[in-house]
Design goal:
330 residues; alpha/beta; disordered N terminus; TraB/PrgY/GumN_fam
Length: 330
């Protein structure tokens, strides 16, 4: 699979004093009438397509489900306050990555440079066409990363970096946290156990699985125009806070066709592959973990990227299939 990594995935699936600088027009204004209809029709047909907070019950067991935003936004603070009583009353907080996973990842990166860097003697200056590397250099330097350093990095990791507009990086660099981290802090302060639904290296394994040539091809196609990236970022944030998650996902699918150098048909194929690898397969892998947690605990809060909740293979429908009753809100 050649990874196509939209900003939507990074924020919803693994930024604001910067939010004013990150302002952009509504990306829907860049779509044709047919594309807008495609988005709204697909979103309307998506199970559990609207909403970020849900409750699942089965007998005496209860799971509060929060669809999170991984990037920082000041509007996340009231949501954390809203969820705080559910967390402090729970037996367990389930997240994508908790403190143990973050520590394990940091240790692994420190001890194994090959996780993020090319260590076989090659560099991207050798592997990319000169014009493509010049474009890469401009893109990474706009994000404060020297081109010489980027040349030594794994292509898939650079694809993740380039998936973000430059305006969204300041908060990450300054340690401002998304909703997941805020909820973990609430749990730890209340002495509530925190458990991850997957190993720390899941995303690393998925993203690095492709041959290096395929990763290079994907990197060549990662240069979304800055104005389009800013518009997508602004629309993503507004859509998240209005709860229109399925519409946001379908919008990201259609906007991916505007990546320069990528044919619309190829964009759709890549997006579908990415959706299967980074959403559907992970959702399915999480279900036994959630089931085991529910057996051991009466009350759970599950906080994962909002993009994991909707859809026929989304977490909510999978729980429903497993006998849980799903209702919106707390």
């Amino acid at each position: 699979m050649r990874q196509l990594i939209p900003l939507t995935l990074m924020a919803l699936v693994s930024a604001t004093q910067a939010i004013a600088a990150c302002a952009g027009d509504d990306v829907r204004t860049r779509l044709s009438a047919a594309e807008r209809l495609e988005v709204t029709t697909a979103a309307a047909a998506t199970p559990y397509g609207s909403g970020t907070i849900w409750t699942a019950t089965r007998g005496d067991d209860r799971i509060t489900i929060a669809g999170t935003m991984h990037l920082y936004d000041p509007r996340l603070a009231p949501i954390a306050v809203q969820l705080s009583p559910a967390i402090t009353a729970a037996d367990l907080l389930l997240v994508e990555a908790g403190p143990e996973e973050e520590a394990a990842m940091a240790d692994a990166i420190a001890s194994d440079p090959s996780l993020l860097f090319l260590t076989d003697g090659n560099s991207l200056t050798d592997l990319m066409e000169p014009e493509a590397f010049i474009a890469l250099s401009r893109a990474v330097e706009a994000r404060g990363l020297p081109a010489a350093a980027a040349a030594q990095m794994q292509p898939w990791y650079l694809s993740l970096t380039l998936a973000m507009p430059t305006c969204a990086l300041a908060d990450l660099q300054q340690g401002r946290q998304g909703l997941d981290a805020k909820l973990i802090d609430i749990a730890l302060a209340a002495d509530i156990d925190v458990q991850a639904v997957e190993p720390w290296d899941t995303i690393f394994s998925l993203m690095s699985a492709d041959p290096i040539d395929d990763q290079i091809d994907a990197l060549n196609l990662s240069f979304m125009p800055e104005d389009l990236a800013n518009a997508m970022n602004a629309t993503m944030l507004d859509s998240y806070f209005s709860g229109e998650i399925a519409e946001l996902w379908e919008l990201s699918r259609v906007v991916s066709r505007q990546v320069p150098g990528l044919a619309p048909e190829e964009a759709d194929t890549l997006f579908a592959q990415m959706e299967d690898d980074l959403l559907t397969r992970r959702n399915l892998d999480w279900m036994p973990v959630i089931a085991n947690a529910a057996e051991a605990h009466d009350t759970i809060v599950l906080a994962v990227g909002a993009g994991h909740l909707p859809g026929a293979q989304g977490v909510l429908r999978l729980l429903e299939t497993d006998g849980w009753t799903i209702t919106p809100g707390l």
